[in-house]
Amino acid sequence: MLIKTRAELPSSEITPESLYVNRRAFMRAAIAAGAGAALAGPGSALAAADDPMRNVWPITDAAKSPFSTTEKQNSFEDITHYNNFYEFGMDKGDPGRYAGKLTVRPWTVKIDGQVAKPGAYQIEDLLKFPLEERVYRMRCVEAWSMVIPWIGFPLGDLLKKVEPTSKAKFVAFETLRRPGEMPGQNEASLQWPYVEGLRLDEAMHPLAILAVGLYGKTLLTPNGAPLRLVVPWKYGFKGIKSIVRISLVEKQPPTSWNLSNAREYGFYSNVNPTVDHPRWTQARERRIGEFFRRETLMFNGYGDQVASLYTGMDLKKNY
After folding, report:
1. CA separation, residue 48 to residues 39, 104, 111, 293, 294 (Å)
2. N or C: which end of the chain has fewer CB within 10 A?
3. Does 275 fall in a domain?
4. Domain presence at residue 238
5. Residue 99's domain spans which residues?
6. What pTM was computed for the model?
7. For 147-177, what is each residue's pLDDT tens digit?
8. Exposed, middle or buried by CB within 10 Å (0-12, 13-18, 19+), for 96?
């Protein structure tokens, strides 16, 4: 979707200490989740076994990111009931109907490949992993959909901690495969598990975040709990959900929609209104909750921040 951005961010707005909180905000949520803390209302331990709110806890004090848009965010109902999470079905209502059955504790994320510090990390360890690094709220525009108030930390902060080697050129991601809880994986709509990838410099950009929450709470299962990728200048299917593996690799990794239909879905999948999808125009779009269409912005409106990543590239060929 669209966003108005400033030509550049003044240095006074980039990473001032006062804008951020440390890992304690994530730790409070992680400890509560690991202990099975019972909360009144949403997230209660008394919630039904298939209620996506049953494993949700507050995240407090996360500070505003300097990259946040001022555009009006979509409602909690929109964000949690209109999703692409193909492991639960191809209909946008399927995640809301079926994802509540997904078990998100315990949860392990394997980090491997061309890194000096590979390992298998429990989600609680990953929430501690940024150490003094920054945790913040970033309200961002999701391409062709809605404005979402994510809570997360830069993917690059985590990658720095595991120390990529000189051979690392790309980052590959993999989603959980658990067809007993993810009914869409019983269909042949895509190859499972779902996989995605970024170039390493894309992954290191501060706009690429690992989200662990939205709307002041930990992620709901329809939105990719407990850990998902957010890359706001790309189309939404790049935002892989329920991540169980992050690999740093030498060669461009496969991606699920490119494997399914390379003619329509390229590796980069940058928002580009000048390149039509073979079956529809991408020059105009409709945000959820709006009646009229609006012009699609290059890089989803984040061009001032990310266009330099693609200097000299043919963005029609490398779609």
Report:
1. 14, 15, 33, 39, 40
2. C
3. no
4. yes
5. 12-259
6. 0.83
7. 999 999 999 999 999 999 999 999 999 999 9
8. buried
